[in-house]
Amino acid sequence: MKIIRRTLSVFLLMSFLGVFTSCRNSSKSDAPFSNGGTERNMIVIISDIHLGADTAYAECVKNRTALEELLKRIKKSQNVKELVIAGDLFDEWFVPADIDTYHGGTQADFVKRIATTNIGVFNAINSIIQDKNFLVTYVPGNHDLTITKACVESVLPGINQARDSVLGLGTYSPNSYPEIAIEHGHRYNFFCAPDPFSNQTIAPENILPPGYFFTRIAALSVQQGHPTPGDTLPTVSQNTSGGESQDLLYRYWNVWNTTAGLFPIRQKFNDSIIITNVNGFKGNYSFSNLVPYQPTPKGTIYLDLYNGIQDKWEKRQISNNVAKLINTAEAIDSVDSAFETDKQANIQYFDNPKSNKRIVVFGHTHIAKIDAYQNSNNKKCIYANSGTWVDTNAVATTRNFVVITKQNGKSASQTIIKLYNLKNKVVNLMDKDSLSD
Question: Of the candidates 256, 317, 337, which has an alpha carbon nearest to the alpha carbon of residue 290?
């Protein structure tokens, strides 16, 4: 949920259990936003900031000061051409289940509360926008999946928004950089991608995937200090005579079973503790509403919320403009894998003959990294993950950003991709790679 990631911020299951990044060429760098000349040809990408409306449970509180300082450094640069915020700037998901997210108000009110709570960060971004020396672009992520263009504009007036025709998704290629694709990465995750097909009778036109509810429960577990569980999840066994749909639903149950172990809560599974009032949902829901159940051992498996979700993944992918469709069983089994998310950069772009992209940047996993690939034309390509800015990241570093410096007209010039980490006010070069024509 990003899903599944954190121990606080780890949607260890969602965001991605047991995978670590390495700093192959770690070294200090004192000029990440300078190319040594006067040309503006540097693209800075940050993501997964996770600003919340209440610092009592928000994931980015301590790191805000460092972020403000970084934004001021970016603003002063004579070489930055664009700042791209690649998703999860606003956090509408990581809210404890028993809290009314909008406090009885609207999404617009909620977004303004986030801006007020994090006024220093928003002032820094707005200062860059207002100076108009370079462009600031926002790309939606899953934690700000339903945040509308108007709501973003209300607190960041003049920001460029890169959005697909589908709410909650966007892929961005900076002006004059058609070979670059920047997106959040949740498009390819079964628990995180927009779902315009489930729960339409309950909440017409909603797009919230199950990762939203998972994250609400995870946030409550974190707030409660990962307590002794108040209940035991009923066992479901595989229905061997039920066909593919039942097999997929059993796989889906396994994901929720793991979740119950990673993020225990004090309440009973039948307690209606999840307060919604977002994206068309009005009721309160329980953990048991979300989890497959089986009245008869080895018999038919049922599901209340998201009934039939296992049969609609292909339809969801087509709706969400996924270029190369992902097998449903693979998608369900890999919701907790950062590697599987990263792999989609290669599958959807580099290994896709219809794509001309040679540099792809995702966020979402909270694991900053750079990997090299070859495309279908045997040309080198680079994938980078922009990491996160949450205070505590159990699976990797935090305070990350990516800088892409486009090659100039010189024959020996290369496009350089660098990955950084800011720690104790020192910018460290974690990794770098380059491309040439």
Answer: 256
